[in-house]
Amino acid sequence: MSGKAPFVDAMMKQPTTLQLAYDTLIADLEQGNLSRWHADETIAVIAMGASGHSGQAVVSLLSQAGYRAVSLTASDVLRGAVGFQPAEHYIIVSESGRSPETIEAARRLTPGSRVGISNFPKAQIAEVIDVALGLGGFEDSPVYTAGYTATLMAYALLFEKVGVLPADPNVPRIPEIVKDALLELAPVARAISSLVAEATAIDVIGQGTSFASALETALMIREGLRIPTGSFETYEFLHGPMESASAGTVVLIFGDERELAIPGSILDAGVHVVVITTAHEVPNEGHPNLTIVRLSSNLTGFVRPIIEVVFAQLLLAEAIVHKPFAIEKFIYEQPDTKIPIAGWASADDKTVPHG
Predict the structure, then answer these.
(1) Tens digits of per-residue pLDDT, 16-62?
(2) Start-to-end C-alpha separation, the chain
(3) Ramachandran sector of residue 212 (left: φ over 0; alpha: ψ -120 to 50; beta: rest)
């Protein structure tokens, strides 16, 4: 069971939760009998919602390493022709283990090629995967916190195991790095929380692994703060979407490259811009509408998007104080986004996670 923990509790417990996930993943990888994956093979992430957003980080890092990788929405896979196999290796991701589209899509994929990542790998997902990588069975919040960050960590460990990516010395330190980030990034999140809470719209921008962070941050804001959001790859944002930015809009930008020049064109229009970056020098620094959130330059691979999302979590936790509702309660429930468990997720329960 997952999705019942208070958001702030689940967020602050991540150092402990991620250590549990790390230990569980290491044990499962030792037992998983996984062979080496090769550069002429395609790797696909199959997921929905927040889990699907994490797949964008996979595509970015694997393409840089010379591997073909795709992140596929499970419901799109279900529309494929009978026998359609878009990859040689599949990573089936469902934090709850009960996402119906993901499970049905996996059922159509080649047996023997399906690695599952789930907080509850013995749930219904067990029927459609060949190797199970568990996250530890922790209690997460309705707007996912550790479920998302632990999934990113699972990718790093999996790809090291199958020889796709080299070992990242920061991965075993993720619980410690997250603990430090929760302390160090809280003040700036608090300082801009009212601006975010009062925004009429929020655009979230990033490229590479930071595009995954943009997607997930936009989803969390829509779910938790009920503010209209858009999420855009950096260069796509420049091709039209930025035209709607005006006074009352907040733009959150993750990145160190072209991202740094974006604020210059919108700050004087009354748009408040938050740049989350490892860059030491940022143009327009000191502008009253610009906030700079500096991350450690030592963040690599999957660790950087984990810390970017931790900052987004802190921002939600601070901004919800300015709202007249609880972050844990969803207004709308769709009865078919999770396969039910007896005694849970009743029709009047509004805390069932969407992702």
Answers:
(1) 999 999 999 999 999 999 999 999 999 999 999 999 999 999 999 99
(2) 14
(3) alpha
pTM over 0.85? The answer is yes
Q: CA-to-CA distance for 160 and 22, rounded, in angstroms?
A: 13
How distant is the alpha carbon of residue 322 from its chain centre?
24
DSSP string, 206-254: E-THHHHHHHHHHHHHHHHH---EEEEEHHHHHTTGGGG--TTEEEEEE
Q: Candidates 3.40.50.2000, 3.40.50.10490, 3.40.50.300, 3.10.450.40; correct CATH number of 7-173?
A: 3.40.50.10490
CA Rg value for the chain: 20
Question: Phi/psi of residue 116, each to 5°?
Answer: -100, 135
DSSP calls for 289-327:
TEEEEEPPTT--TTHHHHHHHHHHHHHHHHHGGGSSS-T
Q: Rounded distance, CA 334 to CA 352, Å?
A: 9
